[in-house]
Amino acid sequence: MSLSLFKLQGKRVLVTGGTQGIGFSIARGLAQAGAMVVINARKREKLDEALVSFEQAGLAAVGVLFDITDARQIKDAISDIEKQHGPIDILVNNAGIIRRGPAESLEEQDWHDVILTDLTAPFLMSKYVGQYMIGRRSGKIINICSLMSELGRDSVVAYSAAKGGLKMLTRNLATEWAPYNIQVNGIGPGYIATPINTDYRKPGNPLNDYIISRTPAGRWGTPEDLVGTAIFLASAASDFINGQLIYVDGGLVTSF
Ligand code: NDP
Description:
- This protein is α/β, with parallel strands linked by helices and 256 residues long.
- Helices cover 41% and strands 14% of the residues.
- The protein has a seven-stranded parallel β-sheet with strand order 3-2-1-4-5-6-7, with helices on both faces.
- Helix 1 crosses helix 7 (227-234).
- The two termini are 34 Å apart.
- The relative contact order is 0.15.
- The model has no long low-confidence stretch (mean pLDDT 97).
- NADPH dihydro-nicotinamide-adenine-dinucleotide phosphate (NDP) is lined by residues 16-17, 19-23, 40, 42-43, 46, 67-69, 94-97, 117, 144, 146, 189, 191-192, 194-197.
């Protein structure tokens, strides 16, 4: 197999929530592999900060502000990107939120917010980018799922439901759009150290100890741990892989 199979020169990738954490690392990794990156964010300041860091690293990126929970904004933003920058060859549905609390007392609004951001938004993003990809008979969609796509745990009922749904969205779109030469796959991160879990990583926090002892690799993952899989799923090396969810979790999911 030639290494050129993994190159992304000439490909344009849109990463939602690409200013920090996993999204930022994946965007940077895909840019380093040659892709032109479009970073989505909903806050101007964070977007500018991310773009400066790309520029300093000599990497090509543009930013687009929109909120992925708003169907109108998604539709307009995708149409603008296609017109102003060119075709979106690869979509990474990365942005996500989590709301924690026991199922019996979880606020209804928290449930709706998580389902909207973590499941409905990736569907809408895929729908509107997919329309262009179908026209071109080419495209790749990478959904950032979770170990919670597979496992249940205390106090994350909405998140688990959304990420389990995202796994099935991945499989369904893969089946429906494979005839159009579109591959839809997922990455299932284990516990990855990012701003989403800063509080839990403080030494002495029981959850920190639990995660390290429960993960067979014996450590938190880093956002960089996900980059190789993202490049693989974005590249021609994965052209005949469709509907799969690859866990990048230090062996966690298979150990249950
Ligand atoms: P972060 O909280 O660090 O980053 C999430 C990003 O999503 C932020 O940039 C945030 O922007 C953006 N975002 C949230 N809501 C919206 C919205 N409505 N519109 C646009 N952007 C939005 O999280 P991680 O990097 O840790 O997580 C990234 C993905 O990986 C998520 O889908 C998460 O569920 C998944 N994941 C993470 C794991 C982990 O251990 N870290 C484990 C398994 C899965 P803003 O600053 O505006 O809020």
